[in-house]
Amino acid sequence: MPVSENDIAIIGFAQTPCVRDADASEVQLLVPTVSEAIAHAGIDRREIGFTCAGSCDYLTGGPFAFVSNLEAAGAWPPISESHVEADGAFAMYEAWMRLLEGDIELALAFGSGKSSPSNPAEVWPQQLDPYYLAPLGVDPISLAGIQARALIDSGKATERDFAEVVARSRRNAKDNPNAQLAGDVDVDALLAEPYVRAPLRKHDVPPISDGAVAVIMARGQRAKDLCSRPVWIRGIDHRIEAHQPGVRDITTSASTTLAARKAGYDGGPIDVVELSSTFSSQEVVLRDALGLSADANINPSGGPLAGNPIMAVGLVRIVEAAARIMNGSADRALAHATGGQLLQQNLVCLLEGE
Amino acid sequence: MSDTAAAAKKEELVMEHLVSLTYKERLTPNLNRFVDQLLDGHLVGHKCPACGRVYLPPKGYCPMCVVATGESDEVEVSDHGIMTGFTIVTPVAYYGQQETQPFVHASVLLNGADTPLGGQDIIGIPHDQLRMGLRVRAVWKPKAERRIEGISNRGWGGLGSVIEAFEATGEPDAGPEEFKEHIF
Fold this sequence. Notes:
Chain A is of the alpha/beta class and 354 residues long. Chain A has helices at 26-41, 57-60, 65-69, 88-100, 120-123, 140-153, 159-173, 187-191, 220-226, 254-262, 280-290, 313-326; strands at 8-15, 50-54, 81-84, 106-114, 195-197, 200-201, 210-219, 231-240, 272-274, 332-339, 345-352. With 184 residues, chain B is α+β, with helices and mostly antiparallel strands.
């Protein structure tokens, strides 16, 4: 397919390792990451026409932390920028739209999160509605437990299915230098572990991680000039569902299905799928929503169960998929990011090499 | 419905929902060293190897050049400086406010630093005589009384538990050319 000036590609990226407790501030995680992505793309940071960041101040508890994060993009000269209180993948979506306006050639998107200083069970109920759910203190693990129970009750999955997802994730992560949890684990041994929220066990739940990720995108001919194998964004779309989990079928993800269709995924062959299946049970939901075959190559990086830097983890999925296209080991990939509780909002990105 | 009944009905719609979030963190390595040196009476910043700007407290990077800085970039700055700006705050009794009388929040640019310290108290001069360019020096707490409360990775300049305040030195004021590039 000939490249038009409306075609946009990923031409550079970088990420930090996922760690339980980084010995650095959030912006200190971003400074080398953003610089490395810029170097990887082979550009000068002053050429970037638009920057968009994704983060959440509640994680470090630093008011306006998102402002100092921007120092990683350089405080001088002045830049054109935006911020989303969402995963870096949604920041990438905004930067992609800005590139489509056609007057700039290069954009930077990044995502970062330091979950280590806070208690996720305290922080995350704050995103829920303030009348019914937040006062109950419903934490993400409890909600995921309800979802996993619904999956089992509906006959869509078993506890063994969940454990098999975990075992594959840890096994795949052995090849990922940025993974926090990796290794060979036995499914029967996993099933012998106690529940943390029945039917979920500790390994079904993602680790608490600190990390950052950055992506450089270029438009049209500029992408071809800068990169020998640009990762073309064939489509990217995100859709959102009702906030209250009680009013939707949490064993399916209609918004993921719709976002994939709008992103142009037609069910054709896919070499790599990177999913923000934060809980092992959610892989079942997403696999179904995307209509993936049983032998699909899901989360070859290990996925969020191997490292979960909230606010970066979705953009990491895009980077992991893009890396495999750029190095020639894959031609066509799907990447998925999510936000809100129980897969409320979902983004799907279809990537291709030429 | 009578007025009283309407008021009672409205009150029932009010729900109390107090939120408490707990954060635990270590100081970053650069701030940890800064604090040790501060408790010892030394103000040590990082000098950017590319542009030469001196950051105090050190950020661990230069945001102008986007390069990391570390121990090899440490430089000590003076505890004398210039007040580059100030606000006189008249406290209102909001939750957590301890102050009852008008107080000063001043920015102090120490000699040898490029970044002013925000939120500093200025003593030894009436509020109505405060002015940009006023020369000040640190009033250190006795070593045994120094604490590190208020110093966090958020970098909001809280030195109050080590440096009591800054006092006017009585020297002639600094001209704007000495600090106009460093106003915050």
